[in-house]
Amino acid sequence: WSIAASDYAAITIKNGATVTSPVALNNNDHLTIEAGGTLTGAIGRSGNGNIVVDNSGLIEVSGRVLNSSSSTGTLTLNNLAGATIKQTGSDTDVIRPGQNGTIRSYVFLP
């Protein structure tokens, strides 16, 4: 399905669920992908605010996985233990965190 940034402040992709559309994040949105959850649409970020992506599942996209190049605020991408971020196309710029972006891989959150 299609997910618009104005429709939510937080979204969780549950174990066994797959979201195939791009996910647009803005303001202070929080995207969580649980272990066993899958996102195959790109993550786009726009506007201001502090965005958090917690990935415990699989993000697999043909092309750029995350684009945050024109946004302000902060972006934190936590790729948690056991999670995978995979690009299947030929775009060599897989993750573009933009200004004030932080990427943490295999972190353990309390």
Explain this structure to me?
The chain is globular, with a radius of gyration of 13 Å. The chain is built from no helices and 13 strands. It has a five-stranded parallel β-sheet, with no helix packed on it. A four-stranded parallel β-sheet has the order 2-5-8-11, with no helix packed on it. It is an all-beta fold and 110 residues long.
- According to DSSP, the number of beta strands is 13
Give the overall shape, derived from the CA principal axes: globular
What kind of sheet is the major sheet? 5 strands, parallel
Tell me the strand order in the biggest sheet: 1-4-7-10-13
The overall average pLDDT, rounded, is 82
Order of helices and strands: EEEEEEEEEEEEE
Terminal CA distance reads 31 Å
DSSP strand (E) fraction?
over 45%
Contiguous low-pLDDT stretches (5 residues minimum) are none
The number of distinct helices, counting runs of at least 4 residues, comes to 0
Helix content: under 10%
- Secondary structure class reads mainly beta
Radius of gyration: 13 Å
TL;DR of this structure?
The chain has 110 residues and is mostly beta strands. It has strands at 10-13, 18-19, 23-25, 30-33, 38-39, 43-45, 50-55, 58-61, 66-67, 74-80, 84-87, 95-96, 101-107.
Relevant terms:
four-stranded parallel β-sheet, 110 residues, five-stranded parallel β-sheet, single chain
Which helices and strands appear, and what pairs or packs with what?
Blueprint: E1 10-13, E2 18-19, E3 23-25, E4 30-33, E5 38-39, E6 43-45, E7 50-55, E8 58-61, E9 66-67, E10 74-80, E11 84-87, E12 95-96, E13 101-107
Parallel strand pairs: 1-4, 2-5, 3-6, 4-7, 5-8, 6-9, 7-10, 8-11, 9-12, 10-13
